[in-house]
Amino acid sequence: MKILVLNSGSSSVKFQVIETDLEKLNTHQDKTLAVGQIEKIGLSDSRLVLKVPGRDTYQDYHEILEHRAAIGWAIRILCDASVGILDQVTEIGAVGHRVVHGGEEFASSVLMTPEVLNKIEQCSVLAPLHNPANLRGYHAAHAALPDVPHIAVFDTAYHQTMPAHAFLYGIPFQFYTKHHLRRYGFHGTSHRYVTFRACQIMECEREDKKLISIHLGNGCSLAAVDRAKSIDTSMGFTPLEGLVMGTRSGDLDPAIIPWLMAMEEMTLHQMNTMLNKHSGLYAISGVSSDMREIIDARARGRRRADVAFRMFCYRVKKYIGSYAAAMGGVDAILFTGGIGENSPEVRESALTGLEYMGVHLDSSKNAEVVGGEAVISTQDSPVTVMVVPTNEEKTIARDVIRVLNNVMPTFDPPEVIS
Ligand code: ADP
Predict the structure, then answer these.
(1) pLDDT on residue 417
(2) Rama region for 372: left / alpha / beta (φ>0; ψ in -120 to 50; rest)
(3) Minimum-distance ligand 1 atom for the alpha carbon of 246
(4) How far apart are CA 293 and CA 306, in angstroms?
(5) What's the mean per-residue pLDDT of the chain?
(6) pLDDT (mean) for 246-260
(7) 314-339 pLDDT, tens per residue?
(8) For residues 210 and 230, is the Cβ–Cβ distance under 8 A?
(9) Are 11 and 39 spatial neighbours (Cβ–Cβ below 8 Å)?
(10) pLDDT value of position 415
(11) DSSP conformation letters of 317-374
């Protein structure tokens, strides 16, 4: 089946067409037929880019004021006789939508019924920037493709298997019951793809393995995946918690926030912007939020770039240790995301000193791997270390197939306490 995968933001829509079915997804034979994006929705020079394997990239500009027009444009281009990949729109069998927040309502992907849409709307309070944009994308796509099933795949759903002792914060319990304030975790679709793919490559069952999945992109998170279930993850109530990221602070003493607000007379908005946009690698290095530029600056002797690099890797190492402790060991450590897939330096620095727990990196193999799937630990390393490029869109397309065939893995319902 050809599936349209949509990732709708407030001013952009990313789309892919992926061909998959039950057999293809189990044998990694599913194919990405086209990858596209419309950006600057709401402006007069909105841009559409379409990449089809083996062809030149196509781009065009139009005034696109809202999501219906954007998705209409994407579908027209996909069906265009000279640049598209479909003969007719009826070739699209279903649509998969990335939805950022499923709260405690969704522990797996679901068909988007009116009841599901209501619940996604209710979860908007937890993701006020993202869920409304995801819903706008749904309504636009449904208007264009009313006769095919639409399936929601949530960034948070995979982590709903976390136990209460991992997802609660040590603050008054009433904030959990009243506001659902707890750790949710994000990047779930990526961690799920990477752990699934790693076990395909290792030819083992996920149900037998303890895995640490490390997604290092602009946003960064780890997940402890114990026998196919996420039991802890480093992002929290929002994506701000955990690792040091491109522009996000990650973990910090919460008392810093009121102290700094008082000392600097900062508003809530300024504090939020500082923590999310002006912190992390960007703030410490004084160079950039981009790891490539930090690695270059470090090589040129910039001390702050070197500290930023070491801070980044040290935080990854601390989380690896804590997740190995949480699971009582680890069988494999998996790197993904732009940094995890492409930076041998980061992987080596994050794993150096973990030999005592059975992590033996093969330095020359590691140095060779920039993108692509590979095992980078020594042959006799008790813990396997792998690079597994993520593919969140493929996971969304696969979930469409799983939902339509009623084989979506079911988890125990989230532990809701009162
Ligand atoms: P996003 O989280 O926005 O999807 P990516 O997963 O593409 O981002 O990751 C972006 C990060 O990956 C940037 O910090 C970029 O510098 C880093 N990156 C990409 N290629 C390399 C490389 N060859 N070496 C080091 N870092 C890289």
Answers:
(1) 75
(2) left
(3) 14
(4) 11
(5) 96
(6) 98
(7) 999 999 999 999 999 999 999 999 99
(8) no
(9) yes
(10) 66
(11) HHHHHHHHHHHTS-SEEEEEHHHHHH-HHHHHHHHTT-GGGTB-B-HHHHHH-SSS-E
Please report, as a single letter, which amino acid is at residue 80. D
120 CB-side CA count, 13 A: 30
Q: Calculate ∠ Cα 413-416-418, nearest 5°.
A: 160
Enzyme catalytic residues: 155
Distance 266 CA to ligand 1 centre (A): 31
pLDDT tens figures, 206-246: 999 999 999 999 999 999 999 999 999 999 999 999 999 99
Please measure the distance between the N-terminal and C-terminal CA atoms of the chain and give it in whole angstroms: 43
Contact 71, 13 (CB under 8 A): yes
- Counting ligand 1 atoms within 8 A of each CB, the residue from 342, 349, 387, 393 with the most, and so the one to mutate, is 342
Name the residue with tokens 């027209």: 76
User: Which domains, and CATH codes, for the chain?
Assistant: 2-184+397-404 (3.30.420.40), 203-387 (3.30.420.40)
- φ, ψ of residue 409 to 5 degrees: the values are -55, 135
Helices 291-299 and 303-327, interaxial angle, to 10°? 120
Quick check: 414 pLDDT over 90?
no
Examine the pLDDT at 187 and tell me if it is beyond 90.
Answer: yes
Which numbered atom of ligand 1 lies nearest the CA of 281? 14
- Report residues whose beta carbon is within 6 angstroms of any ligand 1 atom: 217-219, 246, 290-292, 295, 337-339, 342-343, 370
Distance from the alpha carbon of residue 190 to the mean position of ligand 1, in angstroms: 15
